[in-house]
Amino acid sequence: MNERPGEGSLGGRGALTAILLIAFSISLVGIGWDDGLINAGGFRAVGQILLAAIQPQLTLDVLSTGARSTWTTLTYAWAGMTVALIIGMPLGIIGSGTVVRSSWTRRWNISSARLALAVFRSIHELVWAWLFVAALGLSPMAGVLALGLPYGGILGRIYAELLQDVPESPLRALRSAGASEWRVFWFGRLPMALPDMLSYTFYRLECGIRSAAILSFVGLGGLGHNIQISLQDIDYSRMWTFVYFLIALVVAVDIWSSLVRRRVAIERG
Amino acid sequence: MAAQYGRGEPVARGGATAPSVPSRRIGFLAASAAIALLMALAAWVTIIGDDDFPSRNLFSVEAIAGAADFASGLIGAESAATPAFYKPDEWAEKGRLAAETLAMSVAAAGLAALGALILFMFGARNVMMGSLAPYRSPLWTAPFFLIRAVFTVSRAVPELVWAMILVFVFTQGTLPGVIALAIHNGGILGKLGSEIVEGLDTRPMLALRSTGARRMQVLLYGVLPEALPKFITYLFYRWEVIIRTTIVVGFVAAGGLGTEFRLAMSHFKFTEVTLILFWYLVLVLFVDVVSGQLRRLAN
């Protein structure tokens, strides 16, 4: 607690608490409360939605649509992740500045790659999706690229940091044995950072599934599309079926990815 | 730029089992890699083979011409009208919406934190039924599973889907979007918070308990102060994600830059889109910087 040694920033803590509370209060004022919280049919809607949650529509037709759109969402996520890897891997390596020795080139490499990565990931995948659909027309490629760009930006940044964080002493040993900077990277740095890079990629895959599900908002297929249509028909029980499909998919990938990450962690000891 | 995607978040704590059977683990990892590669292949075959959408024509003349058209639309070369970014009042209007977006993101982060703060300790296994529990009782185990399930469902459903559902419930305005963001991120923060508690060094809390502190007292005076700094750090990371997502929630709920973006896109006012994207980037950068500073203050 507060009297722990080495934690003299009690003033900082207090200031932070004050800042957070004030900011939160101001933001609440910004929401329009004048019209009341719940709309006219709101309470009835809550009741209907909750009631529908325990009786999802389980006709064969809906179930097969759910299965098919689950597959569509899965393919978007996976294809998007491959694009993200293609973008993130090289930019991450360049952005880590570990393959060049000359300090000027290195600095230029780091800053330009990181700027590109920052722009990619600043814009949300759905905004990218809308822009790509406007530019390329309605095609799954628009969705795949829209997923790949921001996810590539995230992966690249994390890769760059993981590559930089590798302990130096084994690398120094390689260097003193006469290895070129590129070989030091290839046989020293990359193998050491790879498990963490793999872990993070798998973690992102799980997020990618969720993102792929909402790509349908701009007109591409998938689970989100069916959820949206069900809501437009105000058919809550059909909506819940698709929501349950989505939850099952996300949880399944979540479990798989955390199993992989745990195994990788054990592997490293 | 700050570490908004929290390297601390994802990496699972391993070491639950002793590394005695390495061959089987390698087998699992190799199988996972093979499945991942096969899935990638299947995904691309499905997408490229999709006949409804001619995705093979991505590099066709029409696609490139369309992209060029859109790009010149964004910079205002398409129409004779004055581009939005030459009008000061458009700047001011979009700036006001950017401020509204910022307020929405803060409100959403605050509500998410509030919900997660109330629940996160009760979603930690060691507190409810593990080493920190003085006794096991269904009165504590049942809430544990319930709270974990709430976290799972709330974060498995994307913000946008929550927003689509909540517009049926709340009044038209920024509220449905804010609540949607709060639900999804509350689930994420809650889960992360529970994992913080599960990873804590429990010895101080056990000492506290040996002095006669009851379970709630151990939680409030032992667990909470230990977990809070890390929780706050995660909260700031999430805020950086939330600001990016607030615009997306605005696509279905009212308020902020998101709604404006949807309208501008639907009405083909592409120079306004440029202006909105500019403010969006400013917002994201601003939040990244502020969150980085506040995180430093927290630690």
Provide the fold topology:
The complex is a heterodimer of chains A (269) and B (299).
Chain A: H1 10-30, H2 42-53, H3 60-96, H4 103-122, H5 125-136, H6 140-164, H7 169-176, H8 181-214, H9 223-232, H10 236-268
Helix pairs in contact in A: 2-10, 3-4, 3-6, 3-8, 3-9, 3-10, 4-6, 5-6, 6-8, 7-8, 8-10, 9-10
Chain B: H1 22-48, H2 61-74, H3 88-119, H4 125-129, H5 138-156, H6 159-166, H7 175-198, H8 203-210, H9 215-249, H10 256-266, H11 270-298
Helix pairs in contact in B: 3-7, 3-9, 3-10, 3-11, 5-7, 6-7, 7-9, 8-9, 9-10, 9-11, 10-11
Q: What is the general shape of chain B?
A: globular
Report the sheet with the most strands of chain A, covering strand number, pairing sense and barrel closure.
none
Number of domains of chain B: 1
Helix tally of chain B equals 11
CATH topology of chain A: MetI-like fold
Work out the strand percent of chain B: under 5%
At the fold tier of CATH, the topology name of chain B is: MetI-like fold
CATH class of chain B: Mainly Alpha
Instruction: Report the mean per-residue pLDDT of chain B as an integer.
Output: 83
Describe this structure in words.
The complex is a heterodimer of chains A (269) and B (299). Chain A has a single domain (55-268), classed as MetI-like fold, CATH 1.10.3720. In chain A, 79% of the residues lie in helices and 0% in strands. The radius of gyration of chain A is 24 Å and the shape is globular. Chain A is built from 10 helices and no strands. Chain B has 299 residues and is mostly helical. In chain B, 71% of the residues lie in helices and 0% in strands. Chain B contains 11 helices and no strands. The model of chain B is unreliable at 1-20 (pLDDT under 50).
Short structural summary:
By secondary structure, chain A is mainly alpha-helical.
Provide keyphrases for this structure.
heterodimer, A: 269 residues, mainly alpha, B: 299 residues, MetI-like fold, 11 helices, 0% strand
